[in-house]
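Quick note —
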Amino acid sequence: MAKDPSKTEKATPKRRKKAREEGQVAKSQDIPISASLLAISIMLIFYIPYAFRRLYEIFVYFFSDPLYLMPQNSPGVVYLVVKSLAFLLLPIFTLLLLVGLMSNIAQVGFMFSFKALKPKLEKINPISGLLRLFSLKTLFELFKNLLKLLVAVIVSYFLVSYLLDDVFRFANTPVYESFYHLVKYLLIMVFSFALLSIPIGIIDYFFRRYEYEENIKMSKQEIKEEQKQYEGNPQIKSAIRKKMRQMSLTRMMAEVAKADVVITNPEHYAVALKYDKGGMRAPKVVAKGVDKVALRIKDEALKHHIPIEQNPPLARALYSSCEIGDYVPQELYEAIAKIFAKIYRQKGGFK
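Predicted structure written out below.
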């Protein structure tokens, strides 16, 4: 459960990823157990006849020859028996391993984390331990275990009731046949318990998922902090933007020194133009600004002896229709040509 009452918001993808890296996932341990019992009981129904025949052949092979009973041959006999039994048990353990892996992967996907194995001090805190005794999780575990016990009692009752009629008949049957029937009924009991345990495992899984969602809930403040970390601190971002504007302004002022003319409002607008007859199809805007920036452009132009022409309509038109680096629009060619012609006459040519 969410320990802090303020944690009312669903976890963000980043929080879920962090929880997964720490080994926190919604997983039921009952589903792998039920699936393993069900799979192994089904397998053994078909596998036990072959295993019995194979065991019978092994014992006949060793005990039919007196040489195998000699003490000096005992180590070799033990090794061969253990090897044969290992081969018989290998499919069973392989199936258990595969079912266990698949049932866990089906719940949480592929996951590998050592963080879940790290010891946590809060787990050995006696106060936390007492609180866990009265938690919803403890009550659910009690209910689940009682339900398992009930299933085991019901399965055992019906199986024993069914076997009572055959108990005395087993006394008159060969040992092999009695053992075979005993294993068969044991498998039926395991199969029945596994089958009835699957709904318990499904209920446990949904409870674990609910508990997981509650545990990873976040407060509104935590979501804001995470968003701030993701997007960056607003103050830092503002400082970066300010620095970038300053750098951009510095670069623009450097271009004013290379301009051919600055057209002004005269107070509110200033646009610097450059024209190279050999490499430009039209004059290009190299700097522009309003108010304080316009004043800086004019100061920079005066510093480098760049001509300043006052033409309010043209200055406003250039400012609104052009960005820095744009060529002036064709409709302004005539007005600009007159200004450049005037400068040409004054300076005797372009820079």
